[in-house]
Every structure is written in structure tokens, then in C-alpha cells.
Amino acid sequence: MDSASFRSSARVMRCKFEFFLHAQNVSVAPPMVPSDIAPLLLVLHSQPAVWFLGQLARYITRPLPWFESELNALASTSKLSHNRNSPIVGVHVRRTDKVSHKEAKFHNLSEYMVHVDRYFDYVEQIRLLDTKKDESRKPEVQRQIYLASDDISVFSDMKRQYSHYIVHNMTKNKLIVAAGGRFQTDKQTHIAIEIYLLSLTDYIVCTVSSNVCRVAYELMQTRQSEIGDAGELIQTVDTSYFWDSGQLIKCEMVQNEETMNLHTGDVVDVWNGNLNAPFEHQRLRNKTYFVDPSYKCVPRTIIGEMQDNLVE
Known about the structure:
The chain is an alpha/beta fold. The protein has helices at 3-9, 38-44, 48-60, 65-77, 97-100, 109-133, 153-161, 185-199, 211-220, 224-227, and strands spanning 32-34, 88-93, 144-149, 166-168, 203-206, 234-236, 249-253, 267-271, 280-285, 288-293, 297-299, 302-304.
């Protein structure tokens, strides 16, 4: 289907764009979870807000039949169809304008692959234990990744430095998007495809400062019948998961922080201002900013009421 016939046949709803939702005190802004499903989600899923956002994202981005067929074909070509014997790790390397505009720090490929190696080491140990229980099962694990990037050098670096890995990618459309051309129609289609394919992997390693990474992670949560709770199936190379311009996250201290006179059970606000510190948060308490390791607190789930007048 050409772009002209697509535009004439598509049903389009333009949503109002609101950037600083938290400043407007919008109670339904992410990462809110509706009160009617919150009790079950808190029990059944490790990341309730991410699960809920994933359902919304999946519904909003549901493809037209012709595009769904194309996506399924690409998934099969990229070895991302459902019935696979070995896991595939999705690796998304975001650079170009994200780095040049200083929105995020440059990260070498090795910073991603150390987590990929660790994941496959873990899978191999699990397979080895299973083999001891059932000798008919093979312990060998193919080390496969699905690689997506907007920097063409990443593909050659991967081939040169990690030749022992089987690498899948969109060979015809590697999503090499020049800075400034990211919002062209064809480029947006390629980005949508990459997000979908990344969401089909078994584990994602990426910079969470990237919108592509976050959406792929959110969409992954809709595959619960296939992979169960996917809330922990991500490793960030820079910051912790957040929702750009959403509500401030409340975090309950599980360890004392003597320098700030914080104790177990105290609640602070988390502000994701540092996009290059995966294990640190800057927290706002009495208008005083401070930095401490994220393991010292546990985020609270924000529960709210959905409204009937959200669409203008």
C-alpha cells in the first residue's frame, strides 16, 4: 500500500500534546495505575505502572492488517517468531542527535554487551541444572541478539568485536536515521518496526533515556501469556526507568541515609535528572536535592481514578 492510499483510508485521532503534566497536577499522568485494577496488579506484576502503560501503548499502536502482516514477516525473518529454542536479547544503541544534543552520554558497545554476556551466562547455568534433572535436554545456548541502532558503526563494531554472537537485525532497513530526518514518514515507520521487534525479544539491554527503549520495554509487558511477568527483563546502561514529564515518583526508604537524616519508612520524591547514573537518583525532600544509591528506596505505586473527560 502506498503512502497516499494509506492516508486516505486511515482513521486518525490527533491527541493533544502535553509535556509538563506533573506541573499541571494531572492525576492520571504516568506512572499512575487505575484503582480498579491496582489490587490485582500489585500482586501479579513486579512493575504495575509499566504493565498498564504497555496495554495502552499496544492498543494505541495496533497495526492495520497489511502492516501487521509485514511485521509478522519481519519478525520471522529476524528469528523473533514465538517458538524459538534459545533466547534472543534485544540491544538498542541510541546515539546520533541524542548524543550530539547532549541529551545523553555516549556509551561504548562494550557497556551494553557486558550485560548481554551476563544474561547468557545465567541462562547457560539454568540449562545446565535442567540437564542434570533431564539428560535429554541439551545445555547448549545459542548466543543471539537482535541489534537496533541509529549509528551504522555499531553494526560493524558488533561484527568485529563479538563475532561469537549470532546477530539479527533489519538488514534492508537498519534504521540509520540522519540527525534532523527522524520525523520523516518513512523513518518513523522504521522506528515503529524496530520498537515492535525489540519488544519481541526475551531481554532488553539499552539506555532507558531513549524513548524507543522505554516503549519497547512497555510493549514487552503485553506478552504475559508467552513470557509471564516481564517487569525485570531489562537492563539499563544509563538511567532508571522513568516517564518523561510524568508525576514525581514517591519512594520509601528501606535503608537509613544518615547524611540527610532519612530513616527506614520515610518517603521522598524521586527526580530523574541524571540520565547517566543507573544506580542513583536525585531526590527532592524539603526542596533539597541529594544523590544516593537507588537500592536504598522502593518506589511506591501511584494509584488514581480514571476520568471520563480526558479526550478533548
